[in-house]
Amino acid sequence: MTEPPARISAIVPVFNEQGTVSTVVDTLLQCRLIDEVVCVNDGSTDRSLEILRRFGDRIVLVDLQPNRGKGGALAEGILRASGDIVAFFDADLTNLSSEHIGALLEPIRRGQARAVLGIPGADFTFSVARVVASGAADSIGAKFSGERAYFRRDLVPHATRMGSTRFGVEVYLNGLFTPSDTVVVTLAGLVALGKQEKHGWSVAAKEYSAEVIEVAREMARTGLTRLAR
Question: Strand, coil or helix: what is 150?
């Protein structure tokens, strides 16, 4: 007997993304590869929660109050998801397509990776062989990518720790998998709004500063953990 195909849950962490979240969720719901969409409202103060509620039972909606940061939102999404594979999609993407989703999921669906990182690209998608050979997993874009795919069973044991990382979550996730288990794919033409476009430069500067501190803190923790092994 052949095994049934893996179920795939898309997880969308949402914090004040009223301008783009509806389009992202609509695209995920329409993609034939996605079996479940889990949206985690992370203490939004704009209309994001209201927009998400309009999808009704078409999505799994988690409302976190107060804000827990991206790590907390993703951890909660992982625990609520029912899929064998979990794929993360930022809520500020402006032109997510089924082609982008398929490119991100292909390596893990084919058993070629335990971790897939998607980075915006110009006009093509790398093959798996080319990405691994080029060392693209070491690029800055890959290390901080919000578009990712993993087997849920690999992340559940780490959910509690992930929940405390806030915006250092990508750094923490990068440390869980070896380069040989990781594939980077280029997501052709994918665009996300910058913080300054969403909130203005004043708010963006404060958010960037807070994120830099959290990322640096997690990088320090990760380095100390590795030294202790």
Answer: strand
Residues pairing with 147 in the sheet: 118
CATH number of 8-228: 3.90.550.10
d(CA 109, CA 5): 9
Give per-residue pLDDT as tens, 62-76.
999 999 999 999 999
Strands (E) in 34-165, as ranges, are 36-42, 60-64, 85-88, 115-121, 147-151
CA angle 133, 5, 143 (to 5 degrees): 35
CB-based contact 7:36 (threshold 8 Å): yes
The predicted-structure confidence for 136-187, as pLDDT tens digits, reads as follows: 455 667 788 999 999 999 999 999 999 999 888 999 999 999 999 999 999 9
Q: Which residues pair with 88 in a beta bridge?
A: 11, 148
Query: CA-CA distance, 73 to 42, in Å (whole number)?
Result: 6
Angle, vertex CA 65, rays to CA 78 and CA 86, nearest 5: 15
